[in-house]
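TA notes. Do not distribute before section.
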Amino acid sequence: MTSSPFLDLVAERVVVYDGATGTWLQTQDLSLDDYGGEAFEGCTDVLGVTRPDVIAALHTAYFEVGADVVETNTFGAFGVPLGEYDIPERAHELCVANARIAREVADGFSTPDRKRFVAGSLGPGTKSPSLSQIRFAELRDHYQVAAEGLLEGGVDLFILETHFDLLAVKAAVIGVRRAMAKAGRQVPIQCQVTMELTGRMLVGTEISAALASIDPLKVDIIGLNCATGPTEMSEHIRHLSQHSRVPISVLPNAGLPSVVDGKMHYDLTPEQMEDHQRRFVTELGVQVIGGCCGTTPEFIKRLADMAPTLTPAPRAVEYEPSVASIYSAVPLHQDLSALMIGERTNANGSKKFREAMLEGDYDTCSAMATEQLKSGAHVLDVCVDYVGRDGTGDMDEIASRFATQANAPLVLDSTEPEVMEAGLQWMGGRAILNSANLEDGFAEGSRLDRVFRLAKEYGAAVICLCIDEEGQARTAEWKVRVAKRIAELARDTYGLANEDLIFDALTFPLSTGDDDLRRDAIETMDAIKAIKEEIPGCFTTLGLSNVSFGLSPASRHVLNSVFMHECQQVGLDSAIVHASKILPLSKIPDEQRDVALDLVYDRRGAEGALSDGDADYDPLAKFLEVFADVQVQKEEKEDRSGWPVGQRLHHRIIDGDREGLHDDLETAMAEGIAPLEIINEHLLGGMKVVGELFGSGEMQLPFVLQSAETMKASVAYLEPFMDKVEGEGDTSKGRIVLATVKGDVHDIGKNLVDIILTNNGYEVHNIGIKISITEMIEKALEVDAHAIGMSGLLVKSTLIMRDNLEELNARDNQIPVLLGGAALTRSYVERDLRNVYEGRLFYGKDAFEGLRVMDQLSEIRRDPGKDDPDWGIVPSESTVRARTGIEKRDTSDLDLPDRSPAVEDDNPLFVPPFTGSRIIKGIPLDDIAAYINETALFRNQWGFRPEDGESDDEFKARLRPEFRELLAKTRADDLLVPQVVYGYYPCNGDGTDVVIWEDESRQAEVTRFPFPRSVREPHLCIADFFRPISSDDVDYVAFMIVTMGERVSERTAELFKADKYQDYLMLHGIGVEMAEALAELWHRRIREELGFADEDGPTVAGLFRQQYRGGRYSWGYPACPDLEDNQKVAELLEAERIGIVVNEDTGFQFQPEQSTSAIICHHPKAKYFVA
């Protein structure tokens, strides 16, 4: 950190910046002449020359109300914005002029006891280097020119503000650093980014990626300004508070803008700004405050008056060394695996990549990058070095695409530092340089010198090879000695830290058989362990494939996998490897694993695991013998060209194979097979097999939907020919009306039934959600339906289904009915409800059970003699208990206690940090994703299951890349917009009610929430978890509503309509589980604010099992079944502020769909119970 009086002041007390420049200037009624003519209208930077008195008055206005710092009027005074006015050459002049004005005014207000400061302001300009609107070097040089003028004008520091592109941040930082070096004067750098309402920077950057990329640049202060008000900034500031190693600044707009009477208006008052900034300082440890657009001297006066009374909260910084793409950060330490560095985008290691690069086929290169991420890579190694090629040109082409098209950080891999720099000039995120070593020493101009200078300037991490002037280090002692030399040089000469260094201890082939090479793997593992111990904070990596060089592909996969596992046990953090080729040890046959371990540990003779006591046992010879006939299992597509076309089409449906589908359909018709016959005899036969495979557990739901998409595409292709050849008419197997019942908005189950029935030959009329029985009957009569299907997720929906059946009876309409939904059980439908309904009634456990029912109904229509009159009519003998809460209990004759004796009323009380409600926007998706329930997402939502012999950990590891890829897509398309409204309220329990008070005096009741008391001992009720109303104590309750926004629901509806069934399922699942993860995250936040989060279990998975103090209950479940109370919660929290709608029309469920609410109790006995 730079030493300066300004930073000394920041360390001493809260520092106050000025407010908006533009807002103040708009009050001055300036004319075009003031700007120097019509050509310069809006170019406020020129006012430092044309109207210096106005700019002096601007600074005076803010210093007079107590500001410590004013910003120079130079936000756009550099070549790019000035180029819009055709005056880029005036940058230096305007910067000098404006800086001198600010300097003169500041000096006039300074006293021996209180210095006033000038910050040289430089904004982001009008062109984004990440979007290829301007080259990095050009932008950097523009910043340097402006910075030289600001230094000449006497600024005390630089403020690089309102940045929406991390690559422009780097250009600005490097430009001003070069200017300082040229001027021979060092001043602090304050760097601020701007986060949009989406919760990300304009190009899609999460706050974690911004910090991971800016922190290594070693700026002195980091913060936020502009775009939004303080409400929308709070979560980003919280992230900085928890993770930034330098002081934090917050300069918000005065809320969100709107146009009133033709003028820009901001919705925040000075008093409200003061409240927000006080919280930022006292709760999050912010040390620099001020204002941006819409803030005036009145705002700054309140901040300046408040600042001396505030002490910034101490921050316990949890620094997490990371690299980053332009979008998101990736920690160098991975909790669940090693950091996988994909090796396939390497011109030396991949023939496919090299040929695509040489041919200029950059789409293939980008596709290879994406494929590695799908296969599990966290980071991509990019090497373009090839004999006779211009490496800088190739790197420029590749990096310019990968920087925005690949959602992963890059390792820039080259023997030439200038090639690395060509890549760095496209990397807005934080890259890794591969590599530095001591092969040609460490003098100025050496490889190590040039690479470390790049790392320092661009904030990159560096892979350091254990190579010195003597060559590649072979022994552990030699490797460690080289690593320590490199680390010392990095720290002492270049200012790099241990956590910036990733040491490659080097591994060598074990296949040569030379005695002096047999211990190479052992030496490497010993070195990894020692490097981690002797260079604290550093990281390690390996070019893993070297260990198996020269061996057969099958044996390489096994040896690489075994060696990587052993290296991880001694501290290996990452590996450059083809991630999909690394096998879990449990998947490797015992003999192969044991012989690989013998080879790795050089266990010759009788100590070898496979030696059988043979003193002459050679693990290499045995290894070659074991793998002599082992081949890599390749998934080769079966050649079906000789099969009859009908059989080919049948198997296309089973496999979900659409490649060449139209050709096969054309062939079938050319052979005289009618389109309807193709559908009924061949395609539907394939779908029948799909149903059987799903029912037996041999096919998983995503692949069922893939088959359905193929079926849909086939029918769509054939339909025009059916019209021409067979004319109009009913060709379906039957008709069904599907609907989600009134009061329920959930439709994923219903839509899956639609997909399966439609693609098995049925005519489906899917009439939507919240549908009354009258609407269902009318539609059924209109289309002459053969059945009605009712769906519902909620317990309440099961009662509505019962009412619907009674209404059908009343109308003397005994149409067959299928019921499905999570709250139903087979016994409830086939025993209890068959006693209610006079027609046929069926339970649809899943879509294929519904299909079987429809098929049987179709068969009966074709051949009435096959009808069993008892089928679907006679109640089941099942005694399986119905789900709790389906039937309403009459508890009037039960002697229930007023309060459960098992719940003490002298538990500690926790006073919240505020009462009332707050809204939170802009929550980083990465923070939410950390709380995702992988079991719920992968199994329940997506329908995947472990493969044969696959453990749960291996199953989840296989699907995580799929989750990361889909999350990246939702981020790129802004589909997930997380928001929270939550609050704390004084309360007490009153029997089975929770009473909400207006304030702690308990004089006025705001509302109350009734809850049922369990009929089972110990007769719990949610109201028991709060101090009884007779107590002298007031208690506190928390409520929250979280939402992922409307966009994800809109996109899923589009996917369903477009017959993209698999994409529909996957996106719907991620929307649901991200909303649940947000609820889990916010419950954690509430525990933190109440002060008992330290009682949480050690893992996120434990939180899903309630390993925390207290409980969280959502309406619609047995302990709090009344959905109507959702509306009461929304009104209490004023949830309309985050777009929440809930009322009778929505069935008292929240819109947007991916939203949920909860009441949070702090009592230690508050756990889930059966009501």
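Switch to the second chain here.
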Amino acid sequence: MRTCYRLNFLSIVFGLICAATTSYAQNSLLASGQWLKIGITQSGMYQITPAWLSSLGIKASQIGVYGHEIGELPQSNAAQRPTDLQAIPFLKQGDKILFYGEKFPHHYCDTTFYFIRLDDPSPKPITELSASSMTNTPALDYGYSHFHYEPESYNLLQSGREWLGDGFFGQVNRTIQYPLSDYKTGIPSLLSGKLASSSFSPGTFTFNIPGNTIAPLTFPATTGGRYDQKAFVQSFSASVYPEIKDQNWIWNLAYTNTTGSGYIDYIDLQYPRKFNATNENPHYILPNKTDSTFSISIQNKQSNHGVWVKIPGKSWQNASSLTFNKIAPGAELLIFDTTKGADPLTGEIIPNQNIRADSTSELLIITSPSILPAAQLLASYKSAKGIMAKAYSTKEIYHEFSAGKTDVTAIRDFIRSKKPKYVLLLGDATVDYKGINKVATAIERQNYVPSYESRESLQPLQTYVSDDFFGLIADNQGEWLEGNEAMNEPISVGIGRIPARSFEEANTVVNKLISSETRALLQPYRFAWLADDGDANIHVQDAEDFARLIPEAYQVQKTYIDQFPQEVNNGFYTSAAGKKASLELFNRDADFIHFLGHGSESAWTDEKVITNNEIQTLKNSRHLPLLLTATCQFGRFDDPNQLSGAELSLLSNQGGAIGLISTTRPVFQSSNYLFGQAFYRQLVNHLNDKNYRLGDLFRDAKNDSQSGVINRNITLLGDPTYPLPWNHQALTIRLDTLPSGTIQGQTTPSIDGEIRLFYFGEDTPMQTLGTKTDKFSYLKSGDLMAINNAKVEKGKFTLANVPAAKLKWTARTATETYGGGMRSIVKLTSETKEVIAPVLTASLLNETDPLACSPNPLLQIKISDASSLRLVGPKGEKALISINDTLEIPFSDVFIPELGNSKQGTVTIPFESLAPGLYKIKANCFDVHTNQGFCSFEFRVSADNKEQGSLQIYPNPITERTNFSFLQEKRWTSYRYKLKIYSNLGKQMLEKTGMIPGSDSVNQTFSIEWSTAEKSQLDFINYYQIEITYDDGTPFRSFSGRIGNIK
């Protein structure tokens, strides 16, 4: 899309009709009064009449018209722009008004909006142009009119803001026809445009214009390479003398090629037209090239015709006199019938608003109107946690900053006015905001929060989509040049996006975030690197470089595809073992996963160890990792034709990921490496800063790794205020052996709370298989051997046994979490030798009959021994829980030691949605003397279990607090409840309502507290009825039954 001729004239005077600075109005005009928002899709004279207002059910006392006299806002922060809605001149005629509505070219919106104040205390009707007293002035009888043709049908890369149209497929000849009535003969027209060719052989556009000659345009061939130029464009411009027949000008445009396609970007005609009051097009550009004094003559002008003039730097003025004095070049003229006007296309009453006057917040959440309730829920939660947050709808922002039009710069200008630390864009985005391809549903289109699409749309490695644009808030930023002119510009705001397409998806992720923030880590944080094979081991080497940057206080997991056997079928490699290991990272082995290698929107590695199919089947709701994916396009969020793997991971209501830093377009290993270095450098520099959040890390890593437009393709999909789970207060410990043999520890700083100590074995030398490239040697981290849990009082704690190992620790008080470092324990403390194996006892906590249980049993295994427990045997065997001899869960993932007792602990596993049938559980564990204990346990899930439609109430009879539990189909869904309690005679005794927050379990549980007065109203035996609805009021389930009460 180009900026059309109409805007070229406006640009001359832009700084005069808009604000002289980039400061913003303190209050919006929309803060008071009654307002009607109207939309138009064609330029012309529009009217507001009592009859039309009545059709909308409204009346007006005194009308004013407001809007913007420009189209798309300028990107540069230094450029002038309106500071608020501007008064639009109008002509009052009896009980109606007339104004000139203008449709501007726009990348994001085809509708121009105007705001009608229905009770305007000081409307601004059109003013009178000062009449010239001069006589014998030159007379003009023509001005220039304009035809702009810009079909938008094809975005060849589904990227960038430029669209093409009118495909010439093969040898095609198109007829171009213009209606040119009132043409001023003898004066040339200007014909210009831009054409495109996408072909493996050279293509040619030929102009066949009677009486005129324009040289053919010849285009080079494209290579067809995946990352090579998709098409070439050329512009043309020529003076022509149209040969008009029957008031029409007809000519032909031909494309010659047999292997590709040609396209029209736009064709523009500026032609001289005689002033004629009866012509349907009222708009002219006056032809003078210098300040001039002249009169105009208008054919067929009657008393009912109006003439308006717009001098550069001013708004429209009425011209009662047709003699003009010193008119600057670029002045515009309207000639119209004052008795005629079109009704607006749409009309909508809007409420008052004044977001300009709001105080700033640390976090701004920007979303669509229909998703706003979910944004407000998150804002309330964040504010309660100490991060002041406010939620705004895009509609509010557009009203005050772009006169209602969708515009990415309006959002950026709003952010500039508030200067927050973080911005969360809660909504999906698309490359197709005008709905040209009709792929997205109406609901999805309503919920878009736009992102910045590059100007470049034909070069795969130079085109991009980026939310970084919203963080370019310095006065000298915003233009964001591309190609050879691209500059590295730092972003000042931590920006994230949740690409939700609906309120349901948004609400799911909001509850997912809230639930995840409240979940405590059971081990030192686990960083994992999943590296692709091939490419001379460059991805593995990068993973090794990054892993070395992580302090020893954390766990390191290396999963390299070349360490697993691969199968070959028809020349394609797969790896079942590699796929299993990759999925285990999501399910339990890693808290942070950094993938390095080849990929796409829907898969990692050529072996496809992770695909969108696997992502959609993940059930890891209690273990949601953060992801950094250094691969092509996995994080693409603006393609309406498909959901990327990153989107599926974040939006999943069964598991997936809690947040991702990912890429939206093709990227290079070299730029990924630069970002990775900056990421870990910033991570390590802020390990003890609890106020340093995901958005801070993302912002600083991007600013520290600028590498042209490729860097702009890295995006944060997630909450920028998400607390970094590896960040903690530093804690060191000293261990001393007392005369009794007991180990006493001392913490610095001195705390009161609980410390958990983790003992790891030595690192193991490993080597990849070398399936596609040379073998690679590396070290695998040692296994977790044992866990101790001790109470800390005034900084002191005691331990009965400390094995020779690498010791790491975490600690927690009532208000703070701590982490430490690593120290090697080289001397093993002794315990009296014994040969009795650990005792393991299994049971189901929530079932009365193990042979007829629900699909969601809660398995608990208690382990005890006369000596300290160990999770690894003498030959490296691991303590495991086996289910049906297929699924194995290491004790190290789920074992919780008893506080202050290294000889006892428990394992709790919540099963969910099990299929009917028999389940066989086996478990083993060791003690410090290498004795191994076993247990076996069976339970059967009943095929006719009724729990799916039941409500569990406990305790029943009720006490001061009662828990209610039911099964939900989608995790992290929030609900509302209405509980009514009736007597035996059917009399309603009590009614309670409330919210049920989203949960990461299929068992949704909520609690109700009863006051003494409420309990006194109830009988011993009562009946309840509870209605549960979704957050938007849609019914979910209803339950009824008996509920007891002990007085």
